[in-house]
Amino acid sequence: MKLVLNISDVKNKILDLKGVNISGVTVNHENQPMYSLYGLKADGFITEEDFDEAGKYKYAKQFGNIAPGDIKYVDINNDSIINSNDYSIIGQTLPRYTFGFNFNSKYKNFDFSFFLQGVGKANGLIREQGIMPFLMGGTVQEQHKDRWTVDNRDATFPRFAFNETNNEQTSSFWMRDASYIRLKNLQFGYTLPKGIMKKIKAQQLLIYFSGQNLLTIDDFWDGYDVEAPVGNGGFYPQVKTYSVGLDIKF
What we know:
This protein is mainly beta. Helices cover about 0% and strands about 40% of the residues.
């Protein structure tokens, strides 16, 4: 039996940078981790109580026409309007912990092995077609059915609001924990006894089963690969594969 465990703990902070380097949804900023997520801070959904008797929204002006069920943003600089000046660092993409565990065992004619990998303390973000049906060429997903309505106020997604930009902003609402544990590989094999192999004139005959990406434990968005780069969610997820075979040596 052989066990191999490795784990790394990485802390990073930019000490000196001339200005701020923004690239897409990530930013490099002095005294902050590299490639931090940069966007608006969400504060749940807008409710009916957020409007006065005349139907006017009581708080900082948001994007376009808003209604109950839209995402509410925090006015970071207190100027009564939500815009790019309210952006702040909302998460970090580089994981704090990275680990792997490799196990190999053999008993008589049986052998068994598996490999686990994962990360801890990291954030992921989806955008564009991942957050809205039909947005940027995306399609409707099963999870999009869980939209805010007057009868479903604890929904995963905001209300349906086509041609309105408020809910499409980069924000912590679309951010999820990107920590995970994944069973990358598993193999189970059986080698036939020498007596049988002599009869078939073979040096070795191994019957085996193997699988790739068989199990992933995470709390990320459904249907999206937690290992995919931060962005629009349009990356094809890693496939789960099963193999059964024979390994014969004559």
